[in-house]
Every structure is written in C-alpha cells, then in structure tokens.
C-alpha cells in the first residue's frame, strides 16, 4: 500500500508518518510538503533513510507536479494534512490560506479522480463549527453542528470540507473527513499556545496571554489523533465526517500556569496582551460517533501528555532553537511587538 501524506514535515503530519511507518513497516509513505515556515526537514530526519519513505518538496497547489507524482507513485490512499494552520497568521494575511487550504485540496482531489484512489482523507478541524458560549458547558460540537466560522483560517478549512463533500457526492470520490480538537505534543511549531509558552518560559521571556486567558480549548495528545485517522482509513465509512476529541477542556490561563509550575518559572512572566480579533471562546468536541462506530478512545491523559511534551522540548532544544533563530523573530516582533 502506498500512502501520500501531504504536509508531513509539519506537526501532526510528521507524527502521523512516524506512527504509520512504525505500525505498518511494509507500507510505503510518500510525503508531499512545500516546506513553508512551518515545515521542517530535520523533523523527518529519523525516517529519511527508510527505504519505504520518500520525501518530495512540492506545493499541493501545483497541479502538474502533483499529477506527475500520482502517475509515478499510484497512491492507494491520500491523507491531506497540508495547510496554513495558524489563526493569527490568517488574520494578518488570509490569501495563502485560501490558496493552500481550498485550492490545494481541489488539486489533490482532482488527481485522485484522474488516477483512482482507495481513499482520500481530509484532515479538518473543530474550528469549522465556530465557538460555544462559556456559560453553556452542556453544549458540544457534534457532526451535525452547523458550520459557522470565525477566522479566515477556519473559513478556509470549512470551504475545503464542503468541497470534499461535493466531490464525494458529485464524482463519487471515496472521501472521509475528520474534525479534531487542538493537538499538542512533540514537533509542535512554537507559534501555537503550548509550545510557545514552553519555549518562552525556558528563555525567561514574557508569556503573552490573549485577553483574560479565559478561552477554552479541548486538548488532545497528537498520537491519539494519528490513531483516530488510521482507524478512519481502515474502517470509516465513505462520505462521513468524524469528530475527534478527548473531553479535555482547559482554560488558556490554566495551561500557562501549569507550564510555569512544571518548569519552575514564576507566574510573573505571564503578560496579558490585546485579545485576538474574533477570538473563539470555547471549543468542545462530542466524540461519541467515532467511539461508537470505530471504537476510538483517547489513550493519553493530559497529565501524562503534557509531561511527555515538556520533556520533549527540554530534550530537543536544538529543534526549536533553530526555528527561533530564523524568520520566527520577524514574526514574533510583528505579532507581539506592540500588543
Ligand atoms: P503545521 O502548520 O504544523 O504543518 C503544516 C505543514 O503543511 C507544513 O509542513 C507546511 O510546510 C505544509 N504546507 C503548507 N502549505 C503547503 C502547500 N501549499 N503544499 C504542500 N505543503 C504545504 O500544521 P499542523 O498543526 O500539523 O496541522 C496539520 C493539519 O491538521 C492542518 O490541516 C490543520 O488544519 C489540521 N488540524 C490541526 C490541529 C492542531 O491543533 N494543530 C487541530 C485540528 C486539525
Ligand atoms: P492556538 O494554539 O493558536 O490554537 P487555536 O487558536 O487554533 O485554538 O491558540 C490556543 C489558544 O491560546 C487560543 O485561545 C489563543 C490563545 N493564545 C494566547 O493566549 N497567546 C498566544 O501567544 C497564543 C499563540 C495563543
């Protein structure tokens, strides 16, 4: 079996590649990645010499190059992780989000139609459902919750989801979609909440909390997300959407305080900064469908997952220090300089 993994040099895609090569040593994995600021080849160093792995630097929007790869490799399965993924960047410049997240998805699905495929899987997000109010803890996102997006990022992911459903219905593309809550774990780019707070705390730098830090996210260890996608590929029904989440809701401020405690850093590093525009209040997934139909349950408790994650950042300083020394500095000044 040949599996195309797009965006595999990023956070979740790389964890998925490691998981798949470990679980299915005889399968062939081809990673297609443009290596944007978020893609990192050193992340894939442990598998680069594996004869069942191939890395190809390619933009999924480049139709000719993508079609050429499909001709060469004849993939059985495509899992599309490739995306611009950061809400704050989407507020700054939405255009590339529409290009990659929507038009790139279209190119991949067109190639699947042209060359035939057993399964196309779209890795989507709970952010397509918009947000829930803080005073209604009884409400959760189900697969029936209407799409109601807040940021250019979530709008682009929702547009892609609708296109996947349209390709399934119109052309019979054998597609599935998963909508996962916030992931955390190794190789998470330090522009997102958890890794940013870890690396800033380690550098004794201010910890910028948006607004009052009361927004709630539903955190899932990245490996549990990978396992869920694997199950959907194996047993998921074509044309279906599966929500993925582990009922682990936490307020941002509580996460940041926890990181301070774990690293022995003072809470005086916490700095409240101007809120994100259109900031979603609460995300909370109801994972009943994937549990009932596919038997998926999260395996890593947050208490263990956050310890493993912090340990990883302590043991892999070079990985994030290299990121911090590059383009990241301009980004950080733009995003947090006058906030
Ligand atoms: P990431 O930003 O860490 O990685 C994205 C990867 O895609 C990078 O390697 C980048 O180089 C690559 N890429 C970007 N544009 C490309 C293009 N045009 N062609 C080829 N490659 C391109 O993102 P992530 O956090 O690993 O997220 C992966 C997917 O999971 C995304 O689709 C995201 O929407 C979704 N998702 C993420 C989360 C989360 O918490 N991080 C939660 C739910 C869903
Ligand atoms: P993020 O990791 O960007 O994920 P998303 O917005 O896609 O859920 O942010 C998680 C939460 O943390 C979100 O409510 C915004 C907040 N946040 C901060 O308070 N400070 C920061 O520096 C960042 C990056 C995020």
Known CATH architecture: 3-Layer(aba) Sandwich
Q: Which topology does CATH recognise?
A: Rossmann fold
What is the radius of gyration? 19 Å
Mean pLDDT: 97
Structural class: alpha/beta
Q: Into how many domains do the coordinates divide?
A: 1
Indicate the percent of residues in helices: 40-55%
Assembly of the depicted chains:
single chain
Summary, kept brief:
Helices cover 43% and strands 16% of the residues.
Describe the structure.
The protein has helices at residues 11-23, 63-73, 87-92, 95-115, 152-171, 193-202, 222-235, 252-263, 288-294, 302-315, 317-324, 328-336; strands spanning 2-6, 28-33, 53-57, 77-80, 119-125, 175-180, 183-184, 207-210, 216-218, 220-221, 241-244, 249-251, 270-273. The chain is α/β, with parallel strands linked by helices and 339 residues long. The protein has one domain (2-188, 220-249, 284-301, 329-336): Rossmann fold (3-Layer(aba) Sandwich), CATH 3.40.50. The strands form four sheets. A seven-stranded parallel beta sheet has the order 3-2-1-4-5-6-11, with helices on both faces. Helix 1 (11-23) crosses helix 7 and helix 6 packs parallel to helix 8. The longest helix is centred in the first third of the chain and has 21 residues, at 95-115. It is globular and about 55 Å long. The termini are far apart. It binds nicotinamide-adenine-dinucleotide and thymidine-5'-diphosphate. Nicotinamide-adenine-dinucleotide (NAD) binds next to helix 1, strand 2, helix 4 and strand 5.
């Amino acid at each position: 079996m040949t599996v195309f993994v797009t965006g595999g040099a990023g956070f979740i895609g790389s964890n998925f590649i490691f998981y798949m090569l470990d679980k299915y040593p005889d399968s062939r994995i081809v990673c297609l990645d443009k290596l944007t600021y978020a893609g990192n080849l050193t992340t894939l160093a442990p598998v680069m010499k594996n004869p069942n792995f191939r890395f190809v630097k390619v933009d999924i929007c480049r139709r000719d190059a993508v079609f050429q790869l499909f001709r060469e490799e004849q993939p059985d399965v495509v899992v599309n992780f490739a995306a611009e993924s950061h809400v704050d960047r989407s507020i700054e410049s939405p255009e590339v989000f529409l290009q990659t997240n929507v038009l790139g998805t279209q190119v991949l699905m067109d190639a699947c139609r042209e060359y035939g495929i057993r399964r196309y899987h779209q890795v989507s997000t709970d952010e397509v459902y918009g947000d829930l109010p803080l005073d209604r803890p009884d409400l959760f996102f189900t697969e029936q919750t209407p799409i109601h997006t807040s940021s250019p990022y979530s709008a682009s992911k929702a547009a892609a989801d609708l296109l996947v459903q349209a390709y399934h219905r119109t052309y019979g593309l054998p597609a599935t979609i998963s909508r996962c809550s916030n992931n955390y774990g190794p190789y998470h780019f330090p522009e997102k909440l958890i890794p940013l707070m870890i690396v800033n705390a380690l550098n004794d730098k201010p910890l910028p909390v948006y607004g009052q830090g009361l927004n709630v996210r539903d955190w899932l260890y990245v490996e549990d997300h990978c396992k869920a996608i694997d199950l959907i590929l194996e047993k998921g029904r074509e044309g279906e959407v599966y929500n993925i989440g582990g009922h682990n809701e936490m307020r941002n401020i509580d996460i940041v305080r926890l990181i301070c405690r774990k690293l022995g850093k003072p809470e005086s590093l916490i700095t409240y900064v101007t809120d994100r525009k259109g900031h979603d209040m609460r995300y909370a997934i109801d994972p009943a469908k994937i549990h009932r139909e596919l038997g998926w349950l999260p395996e890593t408790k947050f208490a263990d997952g956050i310890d493993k994650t912090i340990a990883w950042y302590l043991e892999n300083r070079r990985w994030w220090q290299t990121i911090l020394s590059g383009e990241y500095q301009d980004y950080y000044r733009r995003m947090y300089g006058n906030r």
